[in-house]
Amino acid sequence: MIEEFDEDYDCWEWFQAGKENILRSFDRKKVANGQQQQQLTRKYNNNKNNRVKTAAPSKIPNEALEEILNLQPLGMFLYLTTTSEPDFFVDQIGPNDDMERVIIYTRILITLCDLELPGFHHDLLKKVASCTPLLKHYEEIVRKLCTKSYRTMWTDLERVDKIIWYMQTLLLQAQRADVMDATAMQILFNIWMHLKSNFNPLIAERPVCKQFLYGLNFVFSVDPEILNIPRPVAELYPSLEELRQWISRKANSNPEAPKPETSYKNTTQYINNQLLLLRHQFLMPLRELVCKLHLERNLGDFKTLHFAFENVQIKLNQNFNDVLYSKLLYIDILAGKRKAAAAGEEETLAKADEHALSKLKNGTLLCLSTSYDFDNLILATVSAIDISAQSRGYIAITILRQYNIGNIYKKMLIVFETPVYFEPFQKAYRYLLNSNVLNFPMADFIVHGVNRTHPPLYLNHTQPPNVYESQKFKNKLAKMPLNISQREAFEHVLTTNFNLIQGPPGTGKTHVSLQLVKTILENAKHCAPIVVITYTNDSLDKFLLKLSAHTSSIVRFGCQLRIPEIVKFNARSDRNMHMINPKLKRLYWMVNMELKEHFQRLQSLYAAFNESKNEGYAEILATQRLIWNTQEKLNCIRIIFQHYLIAKKNVLAMTTTCAARMNFVFRFLKTRIVIFEESAEILEAHLLPCLTPFTEQIIMIGDHMQLKPYCSYIKGIRNSEYSQSLFERLIRANFHVNVLNIQYRMRNDFVDLICPLIYKKLLSHQSVTKFPPIRKMTKNLYFLDHRQFETMQNNTLPTNAWEKHNVYLISRHLIEVGGYNSDEIVVLTPYSSQVASIKSEFSKHASLKAIGVSTVDSFQGLEANIVILSLVRSNAHRKIGFLVEPTRICVALSRARYGLYVIGNMESLAHNSLTWCEIRKRLRLQNAIGCEFPYITDI
């Protein structure tokens, strides 16, 4: 067998090393490890000689190709990428090779292509596109298939379908990746012509052949109906030309995004729709910002809330030979001050600057230019959070693209982050761009709008088969701690492959999720690992804390763990895996060397660049793209390593942002079950990378009547169909949804505010009638109505001092007179500026310091015994901002268990919103609105 693992070689220590130490340790130990490396080489050579006997020095025989084909996909990838002689990707297919060899070689390529490994995938497609003999074989296959009289080899139509599918997958993905030269495009055109004039009806009517022709029509057709279909571009980020069009306000510089549909004609249309929508969601806030900066000629208010600086420079790490890729380049945000400072004087960061840097995330997209005219543009991402460097004003970056600028050093620049966080959008965009339209996961439901579900395939392999239909399980189900609506949802989910569960506030969504995971692990453990995905880190951690009572076989990805009890589940803390494929270490080193070569070449090009003649500019851009692609490879390899840690775990847990990076690991593991918590808050395109062709069951749990996916348009589109989740789209398309309708959280008084106004039917469990009344208050629910105006910070951030003072008064009363503990009270407000203002006030009073203060959005999914809600908005124009949104109103009014006290200008609220108008009526019926809180002050 071709060797996949070397059990004598322990790579754990090497991979656990920090990024900075990996390459340095390799160099330091190169001599000491010489004998070990020689031993590995001897093993590799012996293996090659024994198992891959070549007839000629550069050609792999068919028997060896068959053996490679039998490897597991990951083992195949590592074997082929670390084996240099013979090179699988060079001269393995010639014009005289027989059809059998071509098909075997193609199947190997398809296996690698299906992995969709970032960085490597692009290289693979490039190698396919540059192999002219292989492409000509494909052309000949299609020509023969389309010939009516040709019969040889094509009697097995299932095999024909597979061959067409292989060719379509490789060729259309290569074309979409823009790696085909003129020769490859000519061959692709010839294939299109053969398919168009297909004289073999037996082949022409095959669905896979029709799909191939449809895909090629998109590439070559001059039919106006096809030409008018919007096409996605290769990159999510903007080009300089687009920025210039935005500034000049040219027509069509802001095309309207396609609206989500109930169903789509085909997968190609669906993917294009999602790509265009993603780009629209990402670019529109940036468009507004760029136009504003150009008009005002300064960073203005944006700098207060975001990372934005003038007079910065890009600096090369002088020790770039000794550091890893993430710290090769830096932005010096103090460059202007350093230049003006006296000799020997050390510049330090202002407090506001420290705050801006502390909020930066890995993967944030930064835009740099020499002026607000945007005659040039550099796009870079934050590549590492280097606390030491940041304290001195340096931000580690990776250049994505540069436009109309040669040498990037020694130029004073402006820099600002994009309003929308780049990384999750970029990962989703790349996933969709590379998606295989023929093997798109759950396409029946997601693309075609099919409503009819069926049992997940894995139930055929449970013991006994279809275990959930057995009497033994039904008896057990009857004893589970579930109410009627929860049990109905539970039974339906276990036996269907695509599920929606809507849970209004307090109805036990998380409880149902936990019972589902526990039950699946008990009855269908062969389907592990189960993938659990949430929108926020807080919700994920709280879910895992409860799940840990049922299983400890959990891996939690991502580093933002806030609960100490689950730190042991962090992927970085797992030390149980001691043996990994040693070829992974070799590959990491090879790619690191490749990156260093590209980077050194780029520095030489910068040094030799003649700005007046623009000589060498094209080569600078090409090398920059090579560097970016190589960095993608390194990130990919580090994630591949985690595959070895999680292969035998029961539960993999992460946020959607993390899941977008992990798609190919899901493919390695062939994960079958994916559970989405908070699914109504996840943009549809961000959910898709969590799925693979191996996904057999999807369970989406959420509530589209609460918070929806966030799209940070400057003008706001929160309620727009452009920010719709897949969860909501399917419900609106009348897909079956199980609704949990018994709530355990709130007093009936609070329920009356949102039902039937927002929810048609929401019952209360009898336990809520036993809630104790709030001490030292005559009312458990009260709205303090006022007309005191807000003030604006930086023209964008509203605060209300009068409300802040009354929040302080009622908080002090509840603690000092009512005798409540600070952990029983939470203060909520829609605006982060009011959060900061109230926190500042509480910090002055020892008894109030520990009271939680949060935005409404960040408290979604949580609850508190007593909630004090400051609505802030009160002004002469009666504007109420996003308080007009029923979803926000719903979340704000449904967090409290025992006591809810609201402060706001009801006149303005009711003037702008029918929802608030109805709420005012209900408050008046309960005598729960007035100009003073109903304190009880006597003993």
TrEMBL record:
Protein name, per record: NFX1-type zinc finger-containing protein 1-like
Which one of the record's GO molecular function terms can you name? helicase activity
* PANTHER family (alphabetical): DNA2/NAM7 HELICASE FAMILY, NFX1-TYPE ZINC FINGER-CONTAINING PROTEIN 1
Q: Where is the DNA2/NAM7 helicase-like C-terminal domain?
A: 722-906
Which InterPro entries does the record cross-reference, listed alphabetically?
A: DNA2/NAM7-like, DNA2/NAM7-like_C, DNA2/NAM7_AAA_11, P-loop_NTPase, SF1_C_Upf1
**Pfam family of this protein, just one?**
AAA_12
Q: Which gene encodes it?
A: LOC117576805
| Source taxon at top rank | Eukaryota
Q: Which Gene3D superfamilies match?
A: P-loop containing nucleotide triphosphate hydrolases
